[in-house]
Amino acid sequence: MSQKLILPINKAKLTASIDTEAYKKAFGFRHFGSDMISTQKDRTVYASGNGTVAATGWDNACGNVVAVVYPGAYNRKTQKDESIAIRYFHLAAINVKMGQRVDKNTKLGTYGMTGKYGGTGPHLHMEADADTQYVLYTPTVTASNYLRGTSQGAVPFDDARNTVMNVIDFMHCKPGLLDLQTYTTALDAYIHPEDRSIDKT
Into how many domains does the chain fold? Predict the structure, then answer.
């Protein structure tokens, strides 16, 4: 199975890329995912393609969490199909259950600013991980009550065994009549140059 994953927010604006020096300098820690908001009032978060909900729950640090496994996701950077898990953090509400099959029309929930690391405003934090078996292992936390941090078995981001990737490498914009997706980015040092544009489906 091969599929091109699409944006989880239809009017998406990327506000922070994965692991930039500017983010680390500003906030005092490394950023192991990508942050996104809507340019309109709709905060709905959709599944990005065909997949299965692997986990849902509450984490003290990252708020409401959903993890979805997407088989055969096309990586624009490597030009290969890869099965990945995407973790969604800081959701205000969760609309899916573990084991549920999803597609691009499935509403996973709405984004917010839940959890200790919810930030100063509502946003969606996403992480792509090649480890589709242990979907709650993330270098974002050291230890937590739901997610598994680096002191609990997660591989550190700068370790050669790290499986976390740039989720934007898997994202595509679907501008067709049904989805009408758009993609923009903040124009600052929090955005990697390669993330400033993505392919259309």
Answer: 1
Residue 18 within a domain:
yes
Residues with Cβ within 8 Å of 10's Cβ and at least 6 positions away in sequence, in order, are: 38, 42, 44, 46, 179, 180, 181, 182
Enclosing domain of residue 105: 5-195
Contact 96, 56 (CB under 8 A): yes
**For 154, which DSSP code?**
P
Q: Is the pLDDT of residue 105 over 90?
A: yes
26 φ/ψ angles, rounded to the nearest 5 degrees: -75, -40
Q: Is there a domain that residue 91 lies in?
A: yes
pLDDT in tens, 54-94: 999 999 999 999 999 999 999 999 999 999 999 999 999 99
Reduce the DSSP state of residue 56 to 3 states and report it. strand
The torsion angles phi and psi of 27, rounded to 5 degrees, stand at: -110, -10
pLDDT at position 119: 85
Asked whether residue 200 is domain-assigned, the answer is: no
120 pLDDT above the threshold of 90: no
172: which residues sit within 8 A by CB, 6+ positions away? Answer: 4, 5, 6, 7, 74, 76, 198, 199, 200, 201
CB atoms within 10 A of CB 121: 9
CATH number at residue 51: 2.70.70.10
- Strands 44-46 and 164-165, by their bridges, are unpaired
Domain-embedded: residue 159: yes
